[in-house]
């Protein structure tokens, strides 16, 4: 019996006199045995065998030409241009966002929607190969309650594409594989853990009109 | 395994290369986060944060080097950030910067390595190893569970554990 076979047996948790006999005469295997047994205990932990349920598709990109999920609650026409203009003034200080020394390629002011009327925010975007890098900054939004997450969507008409989910809305960085030219509007929703890929009806922030790229 | 070409594409920020990295390392990142944080939701969040950070930092990745240690460092950092964020929200009177990380963070490197090695086994070998360790089955029970001859189970188990022991030898020697 050779060392490799004995070490495999120890890792597998197998016992027997032939393994013990080898151990008795092999100092190298005796030294390694406690470590193999420690690794065997880790192998038995549930966490080792768990898989993530998501993917990075929300971070990176979608197949060219594919369609995003249908928007469930497209009732946003009530916001007047006057209110929007006031909002732009309110969040104007965010107009030039700089990250890593590079000014953003574009910024979008966000107003509190009916579920969070006092909230506000801004999304700054950097155009990168394959999509956009985003920084969302908000005020007036608490961290999501357990079992809920915030989700940022890029929207075009009633079509929405998720840029990712987050629990703490104070400062969020996301990557999305679509350009703002395709999806000019931005929406933030509060999502229950219901597995529904479409935006929920609980809108907390939205952009007020299609911004020009700065 | 991630090819050299794919590593260079990752460094260039290619979204397909980010996907390839996720396919290769996503489960190990999740294991690190789940083991450290003990919460599936937070672990999922850590996975997203890890690959976002990796993508944002792609220009700092050296494509001539194995990306595993680099990604592990990002994953552990993401888990620590989430742990401290949760502490901050859960106990506002405490100072999060003073928080001592729990023991669950101490052996995340071993968990990461073990998961990567498991992912390199064949699906058949993984099924046997999972049944032995996670389900705690004997070879006879594995044979019944997987409807395989017991001889097949024994040979697969031995082959799989021998490969695992070989792949994990650097951990054994480093700790012994």
Q: Considering residues with a beta carbon less than 8 A from a beta carbon on another chain, report the largest interface and each chain's count.
A: A-B, 53 and 52 residues
Model regions low in confidence, pLDDT < 50 over at least 5 residues of chain B: 92-98
**Number of beta strands of chain A:** 10
Q: What profile does the largest beta sheet of chain A have?
A: 8 strands, antiparallel
Shape of chain A: elongated
| SS-based class of chain A | alpha+beta
What is the share of helical residues of chain B?
Answer: over 70%
CATH topology of the largest domain in chain B: Rna Polymerase Sigma Factor, Chain: A
Q: Report the sheet with the most strands of chain B, covering strand number, pairing sense and barrel closure.
A: none
pLDDT below 50 for ≥5 consecutive residues: which ranges of chain A? 61-101, 210-214
CATH homologous superfamily label of the largest domain in chain B:
RNA polymerase sigma factor, region 2, helix turn helix motif
In terms of DSSP E residues, the strand content of chain A is 25-35%
Give the key terms.
heterodimer, A: 214 residues, alpha+beta, Immunoglobulin-like, 2 domains, eight-stranded antiparallel beta sheet, two-stranded antiparallel sheet, 4 helices, 21% helix, disordered C terminus, B: 176 residues, mainly alpha, Rna Polymerase Sigma Factor, Chain: A, Arc Repressor Mutant, subunit A, globular
Short structural description:
The complex is a heterodimer of chains A (214) and B (176). Chain A is α+β, with helices and mostly antiparallel strands and 214 residues long.
Q: Explain this structure to me?
A:
The complex is a heterodimer of chains A (214) and B (176). Chain A is 21% helix and 30% strand. By secondary structure, chain A is α+β, with helices and mostly antiparallel strands. Chain A folds into 2 domains: 3-49, no CATH class; 81-207, Immunoglobulin-like, CATH 2.60.40. Chain A has an 8-stranded antiparallel β-sheet, with helices on one face. In chain A, helix 2 (17-25) crosses helix 3 (27-43). Chain A is elongated. The N and C termini of chain A lie far apart (72 Å). The model of chain A is unreliable at 61-101 and 210-214 (pLDDT under 50). By secondary structure, chain B is an all-alpha fold. In chain B, helix 6 (123-133) packs across helix 7 (139-146). Chain B is globular. The interface between A and B is large, with 53 and 52 residues.
């Amino acid at each position: 019996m050779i060392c490799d076979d004995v070490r495999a047996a120890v890792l597998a948790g197998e016992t027997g006199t032939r393994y013990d006999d080898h151990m008795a005469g092999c100092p190298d295997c005796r030294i390694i045995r406690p470590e193999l047994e420690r690794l065997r205990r880790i192998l038995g932990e549930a966490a080792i065998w768990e898989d993530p349920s998501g993917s990075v598709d929300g971070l990176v990109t979608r197949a060219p030409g594919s369609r995003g999920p249908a928007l469930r609650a497209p009732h946003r026409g009530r916001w007047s241009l006057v209110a929007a203009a006031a909002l732009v003034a309110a969040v104007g200080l965010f107009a030039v966002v700089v990250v890593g020394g590079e000014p953003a390629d574009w910024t979008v002011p966000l107003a509190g929607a009916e579920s969070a009327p006092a909230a506000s925010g801004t999304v700054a975007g950097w155009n990168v190969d394959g999509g956009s890098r985003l920084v969302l900054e908000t005020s007036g939004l608490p961290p999501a309650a357990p079992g809920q997450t915030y989700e940022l969507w890029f929207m075009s008409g009633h079509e929405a594409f998720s840029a990712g989910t987050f629990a703490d809305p104070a400062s969020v960085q996301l990557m999305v594989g679509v350009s703002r030219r395709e999806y000019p509007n931005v929406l933030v929703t509060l999502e229950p853990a219901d597995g529904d890929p479409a935006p929920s009806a609980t809108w907390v922030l939205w952009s007020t009109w299609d911004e020009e790229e700065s | 395994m991630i090819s050299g070409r794919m590593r260079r594409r990752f460094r260039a920020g290619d979204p397909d290369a980010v996907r390839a990295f996720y396919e290769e390392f996503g489960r190990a990142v999740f294991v690190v986060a789940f083991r450290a944080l003990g919460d599936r939701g937070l672990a999922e969040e850590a996975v997203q944060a890890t690959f976002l950070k990796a993508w944002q930092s792609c220009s700092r990745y050296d494509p001539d080097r194995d990306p595993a240690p680099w990604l592990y460092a990002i994953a552990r950092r993401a888990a620590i950030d989430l742990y401290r964020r949760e502490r901050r929200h859960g106990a506002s009177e405490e100072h999060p910067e003073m928080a001592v990380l729990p023991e669950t963070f101490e052996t995340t490197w071993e968990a990461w390595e073990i998961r990567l090695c498991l992912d390199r086994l064949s699906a058949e070998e993984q099924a046997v190893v999972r049944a032995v360790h996670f389900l705690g089955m004997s070879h006879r029970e594995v044979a019944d569970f997987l409807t395989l001859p017991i001889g097949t189970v024994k040979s697969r188990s031995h082959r799989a554990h021998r490969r695992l022991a070989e792949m994990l030898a650097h951990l054994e020697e480093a700790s012994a």
